Please model this.
Amino acid sequence: MNIYAAVYSEEHSSILDFSQRYGKQLIWILFAFIIATVIMLSDTRLYMVFSYIIYGLVIALLLGTLVLGKTVNASKSWLQIGSFGLQPAEFAKFATALALAKLMGPYGFKLNNIRSYLMVFVLIAVPAGIILLQNDTGSALVFGAFIFILYREGLPGWILAFLIFVVLLFIVTLIYNPVSIVIFLYILTLVIFILQTRKYKDSFRLTFGLVGMGLLMYLVSELFDYKIPTPYYFFIPVIIGIVIAFVYGLANRFRQAYIWAAFLTVAIAMSLSVDYVFHNVLDVHHQKRINDLLGIESDPLGWGYNVNQSKIAIGSGGFLGKGYLAGTQTKYNFVPEQSTDFIFCTVGEEWGFLGSTAVLGLFLYLLLRLIRIAERQREGFARVYGYGVVSVLFFHIVVNVGMTVGVFPVIGIPLPFFSYGGSSLWAFTILLFILLKFDSDRFGH
Model:
């Protein structure tokens, strides 16, 4: 219904017009029901036994797409089969979830050594890497959501917290200058260290000593008329402070001292490398989208056009919306990709805050139900796979809705069961119904 609303025109007013996207979507939905039925009639042991084979076939399909694929929106990620385009990257998500379940499901598997982490990393990195080579960054980023499986299966919380910190540090470093970031990181590390160890006196002595060192450097440079770049007044004392903390920790066998000194070292190194990564690793369109999101650059008629028009459409819906088929932003094609990546703006414009909240509430209920289903599984394979389903759906929902309202950069991933597209609909159907099949068989055949 929302795809129909997004691309509606007087010339094609019938929702059963199969030459239009909404008509084609009805066909994809029909096939999705058939796929769901086949899965529910199958034997769950097939997925357990053939997990790695399914994973291998999808990897081969991804590699084939690199050679034979069709380029759409600068991404070589589509296989053209007659008039139908298939996107193997969508199916790689459930295949990877199955492979992870096969690896991590057995009772003896533990995330407690380098080998186990390496095996998990390889299973996730291989499809993600191939998809990156296809220039489909959005789909590749989805595989990062599998970190939630690892957390459920024993990944220490501090690793997850550190990864979140890295993302936040990347964002903050793009906004503020390096000196401010170094001072912030030093203060943050010092506060955590003090709260953990209660070493108030030693911490304040070191800090005052470093401040004094910076002032002394400034006075000496002024006295001898020797200009030192301003950042050095901060960087050099902090580096000396890190060395002192390392030596102090090692000499006194004080573990927290050198652990937090190492953390500060890594954090500063990452913050100083952000500029290089941003300008030499990311593509120009990714740079523009991130800058537009953070308010560093404003280009409402260029890189920021999609998001700007999407926010106008959603905001214009008000509390109750303009009504079904009454969205002006949608009807006059102001929002690009409004039936695919930006389908949520149609919901916002026509159904308003109330309708958008209802849709998000239904998605939240679905995710909570899936977590409950995953937790009640009797076998580790089904539980791990269940959390794979939750991870993928959660990432898609949060990022897709987030990019339509301007809180995430545009990375081009569909809204599950809403966006137009046969590949994504079928892939989400397979992903979900394999879990439902496991759940229906959890007490045996």
Remarks:
- Residues 176-280 form one domain.
- The chain has a mean pLDDT of 89.
